[in-house]
Design brief:
Helices cover 38% and strands 18% of the residues. The protein is an alpha/beta fold. The protein has one domain (2-209): Alpha-Beta Barrel (TIM Barrel). Strands 1-2-3-4-5-6-7-8 form an eight-stranded mixed β-sheet.
């Protein structure tokens, strides 16, 4: 199910600041306590949110054509957009349709990296186009994101090892980037570096400060905490030669759920 199709500004990662058409799929296989788009994974939050739609009775292709004609860019996100095969089939249909209209210049997929989208990857490899393809992979390294009892960092690495390894097989075919949430702790530093070492990742590493309030910058205290952590994250990136990414959406919008 798709909950949003909107034209917006990419708020984070390798394409930060670029106008794009966001397509948000409902559902996720994780349960991160810091998730700022709970309406994309929880039906109760979905019904309460005025910024989402039900596209079942609308011509979704006409909406896509109208939106992408203005941005020439497609951002596929969630939840987790590769949650099931139906999503992959729908994504392929969208790309085929937009490509037939000769308006699509770039596609970015935002994923937590736990599910390897074999159908989408195969399709993109077979259909060589003059379209830039980005996979923005944001691994969640905290055990409590996985909704399992007694689930720890080593368990996380075992769970995602196969899918991340499969993604890395295509690093010469697509633009792969890895984006991590940083909370300023030494433990977080160790988790990030262990992950990078395990998978031998050296390029396109993005570090993003944790949003301390689930709805964004809603008061002076949340603004102060986010700015402090942003500065600490920037220093961390400078020290380790990582790429810093902020979260534009938390500055642009009072309620983070309005976009991205």
């Amino acid at each position: 199910m798709i909950t949003q199709i909107i034209n917006t500004i990419q708020g984070e990662g390798i394409n930060i600041g670029i106008p794009t058409t966001l397509v948000r799929f409902f559902g996720c296989n994780l349960k991160c306590p810091f998730c700022d788009t709970k309406f994309s994974i929880n039906e109760k939050d979905l019904k309460k949110n005025p910024n989402v739609n039900n596209f079942e009775n609308e011509n979704i292709y006409e909406i896509l054509l109208e939106k992408v004609s203005l941005t020439n860019s497609l951002l596929i996100t969630g939840g987790e957009p590769f949650l099931d095969i139906k999503n992959e089939i729908q994504i392929i249909d969208f790309i085929d349709y937009l490509d037939s209209k000769n308006i699509l210049k770039s596609i970015e997929f935002e994923t937590n990296g736990t599910i390897f989208p074999k159908q989408v990857i195969t399709y993109l490899l077979e259909k060589k186009r003059d379209i830039k393809i980005f996979f923005n992979i944001s691994p969640k390294l905290k055990g409590h994101c996985y909704n399992k009892k007694n689930f720890y960092y080593d368990d996380v690495l075992c769970l995602i090892q196969n899918s991340i390894s499969e993604y890395l097989c295509y690093e010469n075919d697509f633009n792969l980037s890895f984006k991590f949430i940083y909370d300023g702790t030494n433990l977080c530093d160790v988790e990030i570096k262990t992950f990078l070492s395990l998978f031998k990742i050296k390029d396109n590493i993005f570090i993003m400060p944790l949003t301390t309030h689930k709805n964004g910058l809603v008061n002076e205290e949340s603004i102060k905490k986010f700015n402090e952590l942003s500065f600490k994250t920037a220093k961390y990136c400078l020290k380790n030669k990582y790429r810093f990414t902020t979260r534009l959406q938390v500055y642009l919008f009072k309620d983070i759920n309005e976009i991205i």
